[in-house]
Amino acid sequence: MDIEITFINNSNDMNNSEIVIFQKNVATNFDEVAIAWTVIKNCGRNWSHKFTYPMSFDVAAADSYGNVSDLQAATYSQKWDLIRSNSGEILQLSTEDAGNSNEIVIENALPIGSIDAQIYKAGKLFASKTGVSPSEKAVFKFKPEIYVGVVSQMNEGESINSAILSDINQKFSLLGLTSANLIMTGGGVGPNATPFEFNLVPTS
């Protein structure tokens, strides 16, 4: 079931900060760049912003020519292959499985040319593995948790650089949730300013 989340700005933020929500691909090393899945902008003090975290997701691929596949509905344990046919490249479900029920795999089965393997949620880029060479695989696995942080000048679908990523350490489990409020407090200026803090409060 999808999770309905309402961000509520109860902070003393005076800079109209942006809020980024993302997940990390735990199937790879920790140096892999995360993607800004949802960025909440211009949500002033005492305002709110609703968004949905869907359980479903899609796979896609981009090739070295700048071509991008259509989105394909996918589930965990599946393996997808990007192949070359007479009519061009095709991202198709493999006859093999991922080998792990908690992972999804995208393989570059092209004879030449690297690809970017991509995961989408709610039609927005959620995770990406760039530079996947022929015969190589991109493996994706996500824990049921989100990371939340305060950023500036960031757009959805952009990579989050390591410096920003290291400063974002608030994460929340989504297990058992159907709806929740994501409440931001803290901020301000001068000697009374405090760090921003988030709390995820179930509402059902």
Provide the CATH architecture of the largest domain: Sandwich
User: Which structural category fits the helices and strands?
Assistant: mainly beta
Cα distance spanning the termini: 13 Å
Got a strand count?
18
Task: From the alpha carbons, calculate the radius of gyration and give it in angstroms.
Answer: 19 Å
Shape, please? elongated
Provide the domain count.
2
Strand content: over 45%
What's the CATH class of the largest domain, please? Mainly Beta
Strand order, largest beta sheet: 5-1-17-18
CATH topology of the largest domain: Immunoglobulin-like
Helix-strand string? EEEEEEEEEEEEEEEHEEE
Give the helix tally: 1
* Uncertain ranges: none
Please provide a brief summary of the model:
The strands form 5 sheets. Strands 5-1-17-18 form a 4-stranded mixed beta sheet, with no helix packed on it. Strands 4-2-14-16 form a 4-stranded antiparallel beta sheet, with no helix packed on it. The chain has one helix at residues 162-167; strands at residues 3-9, 18-22, 34-35, 38-40, 48-53, 57-63, 72-74, 78-85, 88-97, 104-108, 115-121, 124-132, 137-140, 145-151, 159-160, 170-173, 179-187, 194-202. By secondary structure, the chain is an all-beta fold.
